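Memo to structure team: turn this sequence into structure tokens by end of day. - J.P.
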Amino acid sequence: MADSPTPDSRRRRLAGHAIALLGAALFAIPLYDVWDDTTDLGWGILPSLVENVTLFALAALLVAGGVWLARSESDSDHATTVMSTTFGGTVATAALFAWIVAVQTWTMNDLKPYVIALDAVVVGALGSFGIGVYRARSDSRRRDLQVERNRLAGLFENTSDAVATVELADGSPTVSSANEHFRETFDDPEAAIQEAAQLAGTSLSSLFDGDHRGEPTTQEIAYSEANGVHEVAYGDRDDSDAREFIVQFVPYDTDRGRTYVYVVATDVTEQKQLAREREANERLDLLHEYASKLVNAQNRDRAAALAREAVEELYAPSDVRVVLDGEVVAGPDNSNSTFNTVAKVGDRGRIELAAHLATRELNAVNVLATHLDDVLDRLDYERELAIEREELDFINRTLRHNLLNDIQVVKARLQTLDDGDDLLNHRDVLLDHLDRMAEFVQTMRTYTKSLVEDDEHVLHPVDLRPALEDVADGTRNAYEDAVVSLGDIPHVAVSADELLEPVLENVLTNAVEHNDKATPRIHVDAERHGDWVTVRVADNGPGISDDRKEAVFERGELGEHSSGSGFGLFLVRKTVESYGGGVEIKDNEPTGTVVRITLPVAST
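Reply from structure team:
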């Protein structure tokens, strides 16, 4: 099925056919002359045809020219211009010779053919002059156009950019020309241009629709022989052979109504690489700056906040947070972001980013996370040193306070003695203070042993029932008015050491000494639950209020009317926790306190 004619082609055909009809009409002139010669003058037809052959040929050429114009691919404006010029010239020439004939007929009542012929020579000379001027100007414009074309061709071929021209051919965008650089850069120039236009969110066809207003469209692309045209990768550059370009699509309308699109691809690979290296150096400097700040962090939260701040400033993710020991220490706790990049902070936790990073960038975050882990190790070590320093200071103060008090009492007693005094009257007091001093020294030995062996605690199986029986017997002997009973105790070994009995003894002693009843009653039993054993020490004393159940385990905490050192229960909890167990205080019914000690069963 033939294509439907367009308005432009219809105008062109109309103009060509009009000129052909004019040529056909002009055949009437030589035909009339042949008729007149043969009828009025008696000429033979052959001489008459020879006389008019030139006119027949000119009319035929005009018909042929009209047919050619109708069938040509020239635009309608060109065809219309040719038609109007032809008809205008015909009318003007006819009017001129009509004027000449009219003047001769009016002035002389006769016609002078030779004068009319000479007038035609004058008209021809004048027409030739006009044609000569037109040709001279056309030649001048043609030379200027050729110089401009050569200059543009020189720029086109010698520019460092890859340049191509796209125009419509049969309604489809086609690369009409491309410089050598463009052809060397892109294996398939037309496919590369189409794909680049798609990345720019447009198409080549849309640039020919007249709505572009001459405004260029710009797009950054990457190109390699293996992967063709694709988006620039700002993360990991898997396509290491790809080069990066800034592509401009520049529409251009000619004065003849034709639209071209110039495609200019500027290679910016080296500039981009330099920019990335400069950015990487700036980030490295910033990383060093934050590393210095991290070294001076005074606590875990401050160190985590600095690490988060560094990552935010370095890579500006949508969200970043620091998770340590299962807790979000810095950053949003409740976030809808997807944290798809993780840098581990040793065994403590991680730095999470809601962003995709290149390998080099992720390595930098990993370095920061490792540095954070080192800083946290340093903070832990400093905290442990501070605790040990505090504990040693506590031991020193306690030793000085308790021992000096007892020594002062013994000294005062001894200073009051004279030769006539009976030593028996002071013996019990002196022995009591000496026993307290010995007991205190033993307690301090146990405490310091626990302190020193905290990190290198060697545990071994300890039979629970014999240990509780020994402690119960010792408590009965020390406090004759107390009733100490043992309930069900499983035959099981717990994971402990030689400090277990002093710990249990401390609990039973507290139960007796802090009891306000005339007959203190202490009941001890135990129960096994899988890999754990719970020892219960219940008394009938006044009990402990809820707000003090945790406070009594703090170092230096003294109970009401207590004469102890203030760290007995602190030592109990510290030692039991070093075994992997725990201690808690509950209320007894109807009155009193229950101390629950949970111990791990020794592995067999």
